[in-house]
Every structure is written in C-alpha cells, then in structure tokens.
Design goal:
Blueprint: H1 2-7, H2 14-45, H3 54-65, H4 68-101, H5 103-118, H6 125-132, H7 136-160, H8 164-172, H9 177-213, H10 220-229, H11 233-261, H12 263-273
Length: about 270
C-alpha cells in the first residue's frame, strides 16, 4: 500500500500552476510591451509624419473605431469574414475528403486544382465583379475562393495518408463506410486538416481586406484605403492595428478549437515526449 501511494502522481501545487501561467503570459506580452516602449521613445525623439507614435495611434483608434464606423464598417466585414471562413472550411473538408477517397477523381482533378491554386485570387476580383456585381455575395465568394485551397489540399493529403493497416482492420470488423469515414479517416486526417484551417484563417483575413479595397464603399479595407488616400495617417495605422487584433482573435479561437478537436493527438505527443 505504501509502495502504491508513493508512485501516484499528485497534482502540482497551486502556486506552481500560477507561476507557470504567469510565465506564459509574460512571454506572450513581454516582447510587444518592449516594442511599444521602443516605438514610443523613437516617436518622441525622432517624430515622423507618416509613422506616428503609439499614443497618437491609440487616440485615433478610439476616436475612429469606437462609434458608428464600428457598426457600419467593421461588423459587416467581420460577418462576411465569418461566413466565408465557415464556407471555405466546409467546402474544403467535404471536397477534399471525396477527392482523397476516390483515386480516379483525384487523378482527374489534380491538374485542374493545381491550375486554380496557382492563380492569385486578387486578379479574379474584376471577373467576380463582372459576374456578380458589387455585392456582399461577391466579397464572400472572393474570400472563399482565395482561402479554400489550404484546407482542401491538406484534407486530400490527410485522407490519402490514412494508415492502410487500420483501414483493412476496419473492413475486417465490417464497419460501414460512414463508420470508417467518421471514426477512422477523418480523425486520422484531422491534424493535416487543422493545419490547413490555420492557413485558411490567415488567407481569409487578407482576402477580406483586398475584396473591400476595390469596388467597395464600406468595410474595414475600404476605410483603411480611404484614410490613406486622404492622408489621415494615424487613422490608417489604427485600422492596421484593428486588423492585427482581429488576427489575434482568430488565432485564439483556433487554438481553443484545435485543442478540443485534437485532444487525442496532443495526448499522444505528450506521451512520446515523456
């Protein structure tokens, strides 16, 4: 009994947990704080018209985005971004799974997929405008087309890389196709899929801004371009800061979702590192 209790791992004491959390937070915000201090000192000693200091940008941020513009420009942009991300992920996973499981379809579509993937999405904006007009649907389609490829191609490769021994074992246990798909293929491909989703989020944010910079009279990208053309430099930089904050928010949400979806995968990695 004594031997058993001596080998049981106990939870780390609370102070150690809080110390570890504080260390992680310090590493996360330490460098940005240092950069802001250096930026503030530089802006004070050597002021530049096109590179204002952080305090001036913070003031412009509050004056510009905390108000009606947030409702008329920022919220519609975020709504289009959210819809486009959901569509890109859903289409990419569904199409990538089908292509990855069907060999003849994969061989048929591979040259076409590589062709469209190589086309820079911004050059197709005039085509989408000519076909759909300047509408929210056009902007969403532009974002979807530009951000679809990482999750689609990663899903194809992840599905193709499913272990053949596990596949034969599933067949020997007479699992149905849907059971093999949801219990074997997609879980095995999920690390690759989530890697593609991470890239899709970044590309979608870029495409959101580009789709609003042209043929648009509203949106976050339009406002940043408007400030730049009218030499409202601090306001322009505040828009760039807002885009960075949106990117950080997407990264935080993705990290939370990824840790829940890939809980088993991270558990295996921790065991391998132990």
């Amino acid at each position: 009994m004594t031997l058993y209790t001596s080998t049981v791992r106990t939870a780390p004491p609370a102070p150690r947990v809080w110390a570890k959390a504080g260390k992680s937070i310090g590493f996360a915000i330490g460098l940005p704080i240092v950069l802001l201090i250096v930026w503030g000192i530089w802006g004070t000693l050597a002021p530049a018209k096109f590179f204002p200091g952080p305090l001036r940008i913070a003031e412009a941020f509050v004056d510009t985005w905390v108000g009606p513009i947030f409702v008329t420009d920022v919220l519609p942009s975020l709504a289009r971004l959210a819809v486009a991300i959901v569509l890109a992920i859903a289409i990419g996973i569904a199409a990538g799974t089908l292509i990855g499981l069907t060999r003849w379809l994969r061989e048929l579509l591979e040259p076409l997929l590589e062709f469209f993937r190589a086309i820079p999405p911004p050059v197709l904006i005039p085509v989408f405008v000519a076909l759909l007009g300047v509408t929210d649907s056009m902007k969403i389609i532009v974002i979807v087309f530009g951000s679809l490829w990482p999750v689609l191609l990663n899903t194809v490769e992840g599905v193709r890389g499913t272990d053949s021994v596990m596949t034969e074992t599933a067949r020997s246990f007479s699992l149905t196709r849907s059971q093999r798909l949801f219990r074997l293929v997609l879980p095995a491909a999920s690390p690759r899929i989530m890697a593609g989703v991470r890239q899709t989020l970044s590309v979608a944010l870029i495409m959101m801004v580009i789709s609003e910079m042209f043929y648009s009279s509203s949106g976050l990208g339009f406002r940043i371009t408007f400030f730049q053309r009218n030499y409202l430099i601090a306001e322009m930089w505040s828009g760039i800061v807002l885009l960075g904050l949106v990117g950080v928010l997407l990264a935080v949400v993705f990290t939370i979702v990824e840790r829940r979806v890939l809980r088993w995968y991270h558990g295996i990695k921790e065991v391998e590192r132990a």
